[in-house]
Design a protein that fits this description.
Blueprint lengths: L5 H27 L12 H12 L1 H9 L15 H17 L14 H28 L4 H15 L8 H21 L5 H22 L7 H22 L10
Helix pairs in contact: 1-2, 1-5, 2-3, 2-5, 3-5, 4-8, 4-9, 5-6, 5-8, 6-7, 7-9
């Protein structure tokens, strides 16, 4: 196989395992007794995909996870301020439209909030080691940062196959959100590698999940909160692209 084709094999193996493992873990969750409010075992499907890729291509996978220090550092420090903004831009209009504040007291959850927050961070890292720490750098070897981010976001959204069973508006809002958040993450983490990349991506992901848990009710299947969430994510993605204008980013390496 020619060297330039290796990325296709790696991406294919990773995605097959990530999708199949997520389905298997989701089916297994009821038997484990782990509450979905605390953590969804499907989130560890991408981590298993990376593990299989590491067995097949150990040096290449280590290189992707380590990052590319030759890239210029991005202004990633504002990244963790973005999830509260996304929640504000989605929960605020939703409350105005419904004349109801869809807020949940953390003390009213079925499990201690600290436990939920830590488990959410763990689960988010289980996803992000695959999406932002493996697949994004892999696609960056062939595509520019924006193209790679959009591609990862689209696959990330479709990986949540259960969402496709909802209404078309709900599914569209969700896919808009995953693509937009992937753009935010992809641009902000450009040039950031190793453990820092995982912690930042996982922290961003966990903060969004916790914000949705406490201030939205999209879990009911209603389309309006999900569409508003997608639009809020899109606003932040457009802002991220705008902030990067005039900043030189390598198109693709290799």
């Amino acid at each position: 196989m020619r060297t330039r084709q290796w990325w296709k094999a790696q991406a294919g193996v990773y995605l097959v395992v990530a999708f199949l493992a997520a389905g298997a873990l989701g089916a297994l969750q009821p038997a484990t007794g782990v509450p979905t409010e605390v953590v969804q075992l499907t989130q560890f499907g991408p981590a298993l995909g990376v593990a299989v890729a590491a067995l097949l291509w150990p040096s290449r996978t280590r290189g992707l996870l380590a990052g590319s220090p030759g890239h210029p550092p991005a202004p990633w420090r504002r990244l963790l301020a973005t999830p509260p903004l996304i929640i504000l831009l989605s929960a605020g209009p939703y409350a105005l439209l419904t004349h109801t504040a869809h807020a949940t007291d953390p003390r009213g959850l079925h499990h201690p909030f600290l436990l939920v927050a830590l488990a959410q961070l763990l689960g988010a890292c289980g996803e992000e080691i695959g999406w932002r720490c493996f697949l994004q750098p892999l696609l960056r070897t062939r595509f520019g940062p924006l193209t790679a981010s959009v591609a990862v976001g689209a696959v990330w959204g479709l990986w949540h196959v259960q969402v496709l069973a909802q209404s078309p508006a709900y599914a569209a809002g969700f896919l808009l959100a995953t693509i937009a958040m992937s753009v935010v993450l992809g641009l902000a983490l450009e040039g950031v590698g190793g453990r820092l990349r995982l912690l930042l991506a996982g922290g961003f992901h966990a903060l969004v999940n916790l914000g949705m848990l406490l201030f939205m009710d999209e879990e009911t299947g209603r389309a309006v909160p999900m569409v508003l969430f997608g639009l809020a994510c899109a606003v932040t993605a457009v802002a991220s692209v705008g902030l990067r204008r005039g900043v030189t980013i390598p198109a693709a390496v290799g």
